[in-house]
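Entry for NAP complex. Fields follow.
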Amino acid sequence: MKIFAVLGDPISHSLSPVMQNTALNALGLDAQYLSFRVAKENLRYAVLGAQAMGFSGLNLTIPLKEIALKIVIPDDLARAIGAVNTISFGGDAKEEIKGYNTDSFGALMALERTGIKIEDSRALIVGAGGASRAIAYILSLRGAKVSIANRSQARAVELANRVGGHGFGLDDLGKLVPRADILINATSVGMKEGDPRLIDQSWLRPGQIVFDTIYNRRTELLEDAFRAKAVAIDGVTMLVYQGAKALEIWTGLKAPVDVMERAVRGALEEREKAKICLNKDQLKEQ
Ligand code: NAP
């Protein structure tokens, strides 16, 4: 049996196991995809241990993607982005441990599915962390004019310099958002109910592409985008395509993306129902 896993800290929220196990099953492979909570300082041991135990591949999530560069041999894309989210093992403990970045492909597919022409478009990315790095790099490579706005402006400027764009603070969003053809939220703001709005609905316009990388819930930004008649894209497509690319790297087989997307959306619906049940039970107790 082939074993795959996702490592991160925290990890219990990850939808990769349900998505990848459904895909492995659909491909008829004798394989299991697991998840492990691994702290940053233990990543080296975890990766070497997985190799020693004959694992076939790993995914990495927060906060391990950047530190992994020091542990694996990254391909050119992962090195240029500065983050690894997929690891492949050759099957022999003496073989090289290779690292890839498939987040950039996932984000690109999410945007391309709308039919938008990326070349020469004005793309505004809010956030300057790992996800933003992958998206900024690939959009810039595809010829978009990239601007980055971040809470810590210095980080936005540093990333913008790497990709040939412009960096801003969040105070500039009011003038930047209306001018953007593509607006991307690559911050963690919106992951939790009650998070503040970074973007005012009045700054959005019909036809604008609004892509929120968050996939665990329907965010206020996406609700506002619907109301403004913008084209709203959630983070599920990015999640599915980054996972599909990883699966293809590991198995050499074409990933069943539709099956994967249905598995993720189904799991999200189940979570939503569980939350409603929990709320009802809490009400009964009061
Ligand atoms: P990260 O490296 O920790 O970066 C977090 C970013 O959010 C930073 O730019 C940070 O700004 C900003 N931020 C955090 N709290 C904020 C606040 N209260 N106000 C304003 N900005 C704030 O995380 P990441 O890995 O890039 O992930 C970012 C988002 O991308 C998450 O929502 C994650 O779910 C999503 N993501 C989605 C996929 C997918 O497949 N759909 C894949 C990867 C990531 P500072 O620099 O100022 O701290």
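NOTE: The pocket of NAP is lined by residues 62, 103, 106, 127-132, 150-152, 155, 186-189, 191, 213-215, 235, 238-239, 242 (CB under 6 Å).
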